[in-house]
Specification:
Distance between the termini: 77 Å
Number of domains: 2
Largest sheet: none
Helix content: over 70%
Number of helices: 12
Number of strands: 0
Length: 217
Amino acid sequence: MLSAGCALCFAAAAYAAVQEFSGFLRFGTTVERIQQINADTPTGLSTSSMAMVLNDCSRAVTYARSLEFRYLGEQATRTIFEVCEAKVGAITALSPTNSLAWLTSARLAGQSGNLERLNSDLANSRLVAPNEQWLADLRIELAETYLSDLSAENRAGHDQDLRLMIISGVGLGKMAARYIRHEDFRDRITAIVETVPAFNQNKFINSLNRILRNAGY
């Protein structure tokens, strides 16, 4: 027969397990999954369970202007973002070195028009993970969206992220594609490419030529 102490330990472990895995039990389309985020949705303590909440809340920002999302109604969408604000805020408080959490918080701040917090949280994301390429890639997308609203610190940090993607080689294709699609991006990325070694410059030029060639130019 289990002692009272063991029973309490077992109950605590079972509760923790439910907290961890409940995020993985949400099903459906992206918007349907987002709808299932509510005040009772636990964030869990593991990196993977936190990432599940962060990714769903980040998708909420991405899908905010979609027709399917708008069909949810104003009250439902407001509730989703309020819950996401609370959940993501709890994660940044619990895990202040979680760069993705700061980045998600910055995206939510941009969605709500809080540009001061967008700048603060974007800077924090870069501060705790300056060299993670996949995070730099996500920060670049956000920074380009709010380029005119960035602080001087974040403009410099944005250039740092762009340079990282050029030097790493991982983001060459994306940077080259953005160069072709967005005229206002060309002078800025060219100035950064000119600061990297010739080897990296040539790789960027080759990526540009490959994209143009594949497009029939």
